[in-house]
Write a structure and sequence with these properties.
The strands form 3 sheets. The protein has a 7-stranded antiparallel sheet with strand order 4-3-2-1-6-7-5, covered by helices on one side. By secondary structure, it is α+β, with helices and mostly antiparallel strands. The protein has helices at residues 55-60, 79-88, 124-141, 194-202, 246-256; strands spanning 8-17, 26-35, 38-47, 69-75, 93-94, 103-111, 117-121, 150-155, 160-168, 173-180, 183-189, 205-206, 220-224, 231-232, 237-238. The radius of gyration is 21 Å and the shape is globular.
């Protein structure tokens, strides 16, 4: 039997890293109220154990000195069926975590007409990924981070083809645009296609020391995977191993949206 046994009033999620060192170690609390007007959110994330690090050590890892964040507001309506679906996929809540767990995630589900349920979801990894998407939506809505944009450019001597991937976590929408020779094509994809797409984007190895702030003029294949820098495929981007052609797979996947 799933956690959808009666009308849900509130869901509270608590998360903490167990083995990640600072400045990566963190904890968060996410409270979701199921109101008639929508999903009301109360979110707080805190990075832990950073007092043992210098400011320079924190900054060198790509963090800031103000990564703690709180936000209250409403999630757009696209999130409610997704959240209900996650609860429907969760049959039991355990009292003990798996011995090899690297993170701890706990749910507290409150109902209108029955006793609450509390514990660790059996599908904890699925919940961790799902809540990361929720947090990304919160960061967009709270203007802590700009929406992710991935750009892929194929240049030869005569033409330039640009493919842009625009996922909007706030509304669970995914759009891909191709521009070439003054023509523009736009495709809307199912949200579920985002995860394999991102896996393909981030599977290759990126060398920041070879990245460029501006798109080079010479022929080649280039990607900006979301940080505003251009990486040349085969030069600043390499396959993770000789057995895995991650660069080729990514190229094929991005072009396949317009076949």
């Amino acid at each position: 039997m799933s956690l959808i046994k009666n009308r849900i009033k509130q869901l509270e999620i608590k998360f903490a890293t167990l083995v990640a060192p600072p400045p990566y170690s963190h904890e968060y609390r996410l409270q979701i109220d199921f109101n008639p007007a929508g999903l009301q959110i109360d979110f707080q994330i805190n990075y832990t154990e950073r007092e043992q690090l210098s400011e320079e050590e924190i900054l060198e890892e790509g963090f800031t000195l103000e990564d703690d964040f709180t936000w209250k507001g409403k999630l757009p309506k696209a999130w409610k069926p997704a959240l209900i679906d996650m609860l429907a996929q969760t049959n039991t809540l355990r009292t003990k975590q798996a011995p090899d767990s690297q993170n701890l995630i706990e749910l507290l589900v409150k109902y209108d007409e029955s006793d609450p349920q509390e514990g660790i979801p059996e599908n904890a990894e699925n919940w961790e990924y799902f809540i990361q998407e929720v947090i990304q939506a919160i960061y967009e809505l709270g203007q802590k981070e700009r929406p992710l944009e991935i750009r892929y450019v194929v240049k030869d001597k005569k033409t330039t083809q640009t493919i842009r991937v625009d996922p909007k976590f706030s509304h669970r929408s995914l759009k891909v645009t191709k521009e070439q020779n003054g023509r523009k094509e736009v495709r809307s994809l199912e949200w579920e296609e985002l995860m394999p797409l991102l896996q393909a984007v981030y599977l290759p190895d990126y060398n920041p020391e070879k990245a460029k702030e501006k798109l080079p003029n010479k022929p080649g294949k280039y990607i900006d995977h979301g940080e505003g820098l251009w990486y040349e495929m085969g030069q600043a981007v390499s396959n993770p191993s000789k057995k895995v052609d991650a660069i080729g797979r990514l190229h094929t996947l991005l072009l396949s949206y317009f076949n």
